[in-house]
Amino acid sequence: MPAALETVAPGPAACSTPPADKSGYTWCERSDIDPETLAGFKELLRVNDAVFARSLKEIGCYDGPIGPATIELLHDDPIFEAPRRHSPREKAIQQEKCSELRDAGIIVPSTSGRYALNSTMPAKKVAEGNWTDARYCCDASPLNNATKPDKYRTPVPEELFDKIGTAPGSPSATAERRST
């Protein structure tokens, strides 16, 4: 990577990332977050610790009463893209990331030639702005273009924040209870 992309100068809200504490979390302690809000957030995570996975194997796949997920398409044509050229480094990343997902039982080798999407490996940065890893992503644009539109509107972030902010145990709800 070019030297200019290796680090980013921290701004006023830059994180000071201490090592992981006994909870296993690495906290991004920002100077613009007051200690009470941070404490409320840490308590929320502590109380709900069991819902967070610590590895890919803990994530698993959904196996509930609704059944397997399906994607309804507008047509029955194959959605296939010829492979793009990848550098040896990108091929190594692809192999590493797919092996992790396969070993965790999240993906299985395909036995169909009807669907194939190209991959991309964008660089991943930590809070300090350093490039540390690469993500393995599939470009799902061709699949998205062939998917039947959902009849439900996607909520905008403000709607989600309104719901989360009033949920019991959320940092803002906790702060509101303390102030009353």
From TrEMBL:
Top-rank taxon: Eukaryota
Record InterPro entries: DNA/RNA_pol_sf
Disordered: region residues: 147-180
Protein name: Uncharacterized protein
Native organism: Tetrabaena socialis
Lineage: Eukaryota, Viridiplantae, Chlorophyta, core chlorophytes, Chlorophyceae
